[in-house]
Amino acid sequence: MKVLEKGKWDMPWTAEVICTEKQCGAKLLVEEGDVCVVDYSSKNDFKVTCMVCGTTVYMSGKDIPLRVTRPLDQKRKYSSSDY
Ligand SMILES: [Zn+2]
Questions:
Q1: 57 Ramachandran zone, left/alpha/beta (phi>0; psi -120 to 50)
Q2: Sheet strands (E) in the chain
Q3: Where are the alpha helices (DSSP H) in the chain?
Q4: How many A from CA of 3 to the centre of ligand 1?
Q5: How many Cα atoms are found within 13 Å in the side-chain-facing hemisphere of 1?
Q6: Is 68 helix (H, G, I), strand (E, B) or coil?
Q7: Beta pairing class for 36-37 and 14-18
Q8: How far is the CA of 16 from the centre of ligand 1 (A)?
């Protein structure tokens, strides 16, 4: 197969996230390598760790490009009770 036009798959992605810890509230610039999956979650959940206070900040997978979430999803652990 040949790629005629690359489209936007490889576009760099970052997101601004506000830390959900009330006593912190840091504004964070999340990069692709910062995103982790939430294991054993039945939802399409992802998380980042606030580098100021260490709180886990949850993000919805629909806010993150498939290019970033797909390899992470392949490593996601699922709870056996989800069937
Ligand atoms: Zn924080």
A1: beta
A2: 14-18, 27-31, 36-37, 45-49, 56-60
A3: 66-73
A4: 42
A5: 3
A6: helix
A7: unpaired
A8: 13
Q: How many helices (H) and strands (E) does the chain have?
A: 1, 5
Ligand 1 center from residue 45 Cα (angstroms): 19
Tell how strand 27-31 and strand 14-18 pair up.
Answer: antiparallel
Token pair for residue 6? 């690359």
Question: What are the tens digits of pLDDT across the range 56-65?
Answer: 999 999 999 9
pLDDT of residue 41: 80
From residue 22, alpha-carbon distances to 1, 2, 10, 35, 57 in Å are 51, 50, 35, 21, 12
What confidence tens digit (pLDDT) does each residue in 26-78 have? Answer: 999 999 999 999 998 867 799 999 999 999 999 999 999 999 999 999 888 88
